[in-house]
Amino acid sequence: MPPKITAERILDSMATAVLVFDAQSRLTTINHAGEVILNHSARHVKGRSIHELIVNAGEMNAQIASTMSSGQTVTQRGCLLLLPDAPDLRVNCTFTPITDAAGNLQVVIELRRIDHHLRIEQEEGLITQQQATHELLRGLAHEIKNPLGGLRGAAQLLEREISDAALKEYTHIIISEADRLQSLLDRMLGPNNLPKIQPINIHEVLEHVRELVKVEAGTGLRILHDYDPSLPDLLADRDLLLQSILNIVRNAAQALENEGQIILRTRIRRNFNIGSRKHRLVARIEVIDNGPGIDEGLRKQIFYPMITGRSDGTGLGLSIAQALISRHQGLIECHSKPGETIFTILLPLDGKHEP
């Protein structure tokens, strides 16, 4: 039997964001598309004032009052929304007065993103770029494998000559890390090598990355977390996912020169597009730092190999991260301004992957 059609189901099926505010400008109802725009679940935002949800809410709040007073539907075009927990965006806004079952006057605000098609084009461009990058990385991996094998062999020979157990711990580390990198390279090579897919707790991976970078960076860097406990397990290759996130967090730490703050944030998105493909559920993982930001010209090329803003950088970390996330049909985006840079990892939760 098909599910019963309810007003809530109809709202959640809409691509248009719908937010309903009461006479005190507090949010009473929001659909899935609205959750995506605000970057918060309904549980987190219901009951909050419009001023808590939108930084520049003054004009919208005045329009809510005007709509209630006039009883007329009003549309405003090209409105800029400054959001505390999501990238800024431009929308067309329609304000419609309604009366609820108890006779209370409310206002329905419909938000239609006018940058949606532009975002899809940008993401499709990143995906196309990534296909070319993958071929370059395959060649690079081949070049790394030979010296890596020599490094491992030398460590094994050295271990045979050492009698001190404490010193052997260092050769064990070299051999273990060489094996880990060898395994990572093997999975980056060849169309027939599938990722080792298994259920992954993304928060366990993020905590592992957090501890690694904290040890590397020292006490001057604060790494905070803001996790959504409702996020289900991902079907992913743990090593590939860990390496990708580690590259991004290390990149943020280097941009901060190990002095500042990084926030690791997770959210779940419903009916969300990655490029032109729509997914029922998507994991959104954000790495946010309060550094100087990334120059706009560099930001447009930041996922290309050999592109870096540091004199001592290789320009491979973010390119590799994008390649590894691409193996999971995901995508990494970057938004930056002085004082805030956000790398956003989008991963579908439907378990589909490519070699």
Give a quick precis of the structure.
The chain has 11 helices and 12 strands. It is of the alpha+beta class. Helix 6 runs antiparallel to helix 7, helix 6 packs across helix 11 and helix 9 runs antiparallel to helix 11.
CATH topology of the largest domain: Heat Shock Protein 90
CATH class of the largest domain: Alpha Beta
Whole-angstrom Rg? 24 Å
Measured as a percent range, the helix fraction is: 40-55%
| Architecture per CATH nomenclature, i.e. the level-2 architecture of the largest domain | 2-Layer Sandwich
Let me know the CATH homologous superfamily of the largest domain. Answer: Histidine kinase-like ATPase, C-terminal domain
Strand order of the largest sheet: 2-1-5-4-3
**Domains counted in the coordinates: how many?**
2
Query: What is the multimeric organization of the chains shown?
Result: single chain
Q: Write the element-wise H/E pattern from the N-terminal end onward.
A: HEEHHHHEEEHHEHEEHEEHHEE
Low-pLDDT windows of residues: none
Which structural class fits the helix and strand makeup?
alpha+beta
Q: Total number of helical segments?
A: 11
The coarse overall form would be: elongated
Describe the model.
The chain is α+β, with helices and mostly antiparallel strands and 355 residues long. The protein folds into two domains: 108 residues, PAS domain (Beta-Lactamase, 2-Layer Sandwich); 231 residues, Histidine kinase-like ATPase, C-terminal domain (Heat Shock Protein 90, 2-Layer Sandwich). Helix content is 43%, strand content 26%. The strands form three sheets. It has a five-stranded antiparallel β-sheet with strand order 2-1-5-4-3. The two termini are 38 Å apart.
